[in-house]
Amino acid sequence: MSSTSFKQNTAPVIPVITRFAPSPTGLLHLGHAYSALTAYHLARDLNGDFLLRLENIDSSRCHPNYEQHIIRDLKWLGIDWSDPPRRQSDHMADYRDALEVLRHRGLIYPCFCTRKEIQDEIRRAAHAPHGPEGYLYPGTCRTLSPAAQKQKIAEGYRPAWRLHMDEALAQVGTTLFWQDYEQGDIKAQPAIMGDVVLARKETPTSYHLSCTVDDHQQNITHVVRGDDLFHAAHLHRLLQHLLGLKTPLYYHHRLLLNEQGKRYAKRDKGITLQSLREKGHTPKDIQALIAAARKSPGNDEYP
Ligand code: GLU
C-alpha cells in the first residue's frame, strides 16, 4: 500500500450529528414536527446520529411534564435518538465555567437595569439602535466602576451578566465566518446583537451561552433550526471563538406558516401533535400535513 492511499484510508471521519432542541414550555406543534423531522432525516441521509436536547434553563416556564410529552410525540412520529436526551438543567456547571472564562478575559459586566429602566433609556435616546431581538441594550451599566458594582451587589441587587461586545470584537481582532448550509460562507456580524445578556438575573445562563456550549459538548456537526434563529449564529460564532469551541455547519430552514401566513405558536392548541393524534391522525398524516403546509399560500417561499 502506498503511503498516499494509507493516508487517505486513515483520514479521520467526523460523524454527522444533528439535534432537535425544544424548550419544554408547551406541547409540540406542526412547526416543531417539521424542524425535528428535518434534523432527523438529515442525520439519516448522511449516516449520522440525531440527538435530543431539552432546553429547560428557564425554570419558571419549563415543566418536566412537557419533557415527557415531547419525548412521547417525537417517538410517535418515528423519531429516535442515540444518547439519552440532554437536559440543560443538568449542565449548569458547564455554563458557569464558560461564563468564568469570559469573566477572566474581561468580556462580561454586571447589569443591574430593570426592563423598565432599559425601556426608559431607549425612549430618551434619539436613535436607539435596533437588533434582531429588539432594541439593543443602551450600555447603561457598561461603565459602572468596580466599586459601584460591589455596592449594588452589597445592597442585594442581583445582576444579569452582559457580553461587552466592543471588547470581545477587539480581542478577536479578525473577521469570523460561519457556514450556512444554503447560503455558504457567512461573515459573522455579532455586533448586531449588542451587549447581549449571557447570564440572566434569575438563571445563571442564557439561551445563547448554553446552546453554544451544548452544541460543542454534544459534538453537533449540523445545527438544524428555524430561520427565525439565523441571527443567533452570528453571536454563537463569536462565543465559539472566545471559548475555543467547535463551529458546526448551520442549516436554518424556513418556518412552516399557517393558513394566515403566521408561524405556528404553542398557543395554537389545534395543531399540537397531541391534538392531531387524538383526532385520529397518524404520523404519516403529519408528514402529509407538513407537505401541504409547505405548499400553502403562506409558505410560497418553499421550493
Ligand atoms: N430552544 C430553542 C427553541 O425552542 C431552539 C434553539 C436552537 O435550536 O438553537 O426555539
Brief account:
With 303 residues, the chain is an alpha/beta fold. The chain is built from 11 helices and 12 strands.
How would you explain this protein's 3D organization?
The structure is a single chain. The protein has 303 residues and is of the alpha/beta class. It has a single domain, classed as Rossmann fold. The chain is 40% helix and 15% strand. It contains eleven helices and twelve strands. The strands form five sheets. Strands 1-2-3 form a three-stranded parallel sheet, with helices on one face. A hairpin with a 2-residue loop joins strand 5 (130-131) and strand 6. Helix 2 crosses helix 11 (283-295). The longest helix is centred in the first third of the chain and has 16 residues, at 30-45. The radius of gyration is 21 Å and the shape is globular. The chain starts with a helix and ends in an 8-residue tail after the last helix. Residues 21-23, 55, 211, 225, 229 line the site of glutamic acid.
CATH level-1 class:
Alpha Beta
Q: Rg, please?
A: 21 Å
Task: Give me the number of helical elements.
Answer: 11
Q: Give the overall shape, derived from the CA principal axes.
A: globular
Helicity range of the residues?
Answer: 40-55%
Strand % is 5-15%
What's the structural domain tally?
1
In the CATH hierarchy, the third-tier topology is known as: Rossmann fold
Strand order of the largest sheet: 1-2-3
Assign the CATH superfamily: HUPs
